[in-house]
Amino acid sequence: MPAAVREQVSALQEDAWPGNDPGRPGVAHDPALSPLSMVLVDDGGTVLAALDILTKHLAHDGGRYLASGLSTVVTSPAHRRRGHGRRLVTAAREAIQASGADLGIFTCDRPLRGFYASAGWQCLGGTVLIGGTPQQPFPSDQLDKVTMAAFFSRRACAHARSFRHSRIALYPGTIDRLW
Ligand SMILES: CC(C)(COP(=O)(O)OP(=O)(O)OC[C@H]1O[C@@H](n2cnc3c(N)ncnc32)[C@H](O)[C@@H]1OP(=O)(O)O)[C@@H](O)C(=O)NCCC(=O)NCCS
């Protein structure tokens, strides 16, 4: 990513999720989750919206699935409610599908359910993502979160119902405790 874009993304992230290190603004992800950034930039080089995609295998209901999730989705405050976030989150869903992942799955704050649904993600009623680690689990139902998903591979589509009303052991680790 060009430095000028990276700086803007870091500033947006720092504004939305303030960190403690002024020397390192923005959000740092665990490299083990193969973080991939997507950015919507206008013709003048201004970053309108940004997000990161994190990926790992998860075990669920006797199967093993390659799962990606959205993280740090943010639209520049000056450019909100113009459809930029929806456009980027839609593009991310399509990119995850094209990557060969079995499914996309992540949690979001309950009021943003409609935002993600308008970009083609479906809400999994009653589903809890368990973040953290097996030793230090961080389940999403201790926060007011809902789980959003999209099923891509034939196998994931065939087992989509098993992901509803279930507790899914994501275990992304201690850096990105929950996505
Ligand atoms: C959430 C966020 C990314 C939305 O970006 P955006 O570019 O303003 O969203 P869009 O214009 O594409 O919105 C599309 C639709 O989603 C819904 N929506 C957008 N922002 C919303 C919000 N904050 N709360 C509830 N619904 C929202 C609306 O239905 C909207 O359509 P409308 O404007 O016609 O009513 C932006 O508000 C943001 O950066 N928030 C701070 C960071 C954050 O909370 N990120 C999410 C982490 S899970």
Molecular structure report:
With 179 residues, this protein is of the alpha+beta class. Strand 6 and strand 7 form a beta hairpin. The chain contains 4 helices and 9 strands; from the N terminus they run αβββαβαββββαβ. A 6-stranded mixed sheet has the order 1-2-3-4-8-5. It has one domain (3-169): Gcn5-related N-acetyltransferase (GNAT) (Aminopeptidase, 3-Layer(aba) Sandwich), CATH 3.40.630. The site of coenzyme A has 19 residues, from strand 3, helix 2, strand 4 and helix 3.
Q: Characterize the largest beta sheet: strand count, sense, and whether it forms a barrel.
A: 6 strands, mixed
The termini sit apart by 22 Å
Structural class: alpha+beta
Count every helix, treating DSSP H or I runs of 4 or more residues as helices: 4
Bound molecules: coenzyme A
Provide a quick synopsis of the model.
This protein has 179 residues and is of the alpha+beta class. It is built from four helices and nine strands; from the N terminus they run αβββαβαββββαβ.
